[in-house]
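Project standup — Tuesday

K.O.: blocked on the structure for the chain from last sprint. Re-posting the sequence here as requested.
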Amino acid sequence: SNVGHAIALVRSDGDSHFSVEAEIHPSWKILSAETQPASALEQWHVYQDGGRQVVRVQLSRALRSDAPVRIELNGRTTVDHDSLPAVAEGLRMLKFRNATIARSLLLIESRESPQLVPGETMQEALVDADSVTAEDRELLPQDWQGVLLDLSQLPAESALELNPQRATYTCEAHLELRVLPDVNEHRFQLL
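H.V.: unblocked you, prediction finished:
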């Protein structure tokens, strides 16, 4: 199974909100919740609502428009996302309730090779590193590497596809060949 992190900067639209709720995708289980500042987290719990699992993060103070709270929910999925293509909706751990979503960023980091490029169907969702805002950077690891996508630009049923980056390598080789009766000796040296 795979682990994931859903990180959100949450602010109020002017009303007093002391909690944030999000529906959990059926293939995900929430393991922990944290906030920044840490003192903003009162408690969190998961409950059932009409057949859907919902996580509720209770805050110790009301949300304000000028002071966002960073909420990080850590989870585990039972679906094997090591093999792409995967469906965008399955990688989206949470769907926030009563919220306006500016961007829904997904960072895909490969453990095997950083040489992955998005498939043709994902080009419209690809986020160029130059267009990452200061607020986006607060949600990403400090030295992030990988493919960054904005899932709000893709339909839920879109397949996410990463392909190996094609590369051409040039190699010079020095070859020594000795042929003697009953013996062939080859020696290669790559330069």
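K.O.: great, moving the ticket to review. The chain is about 5% helix and 45% strand. The mean pLDDT is 79.
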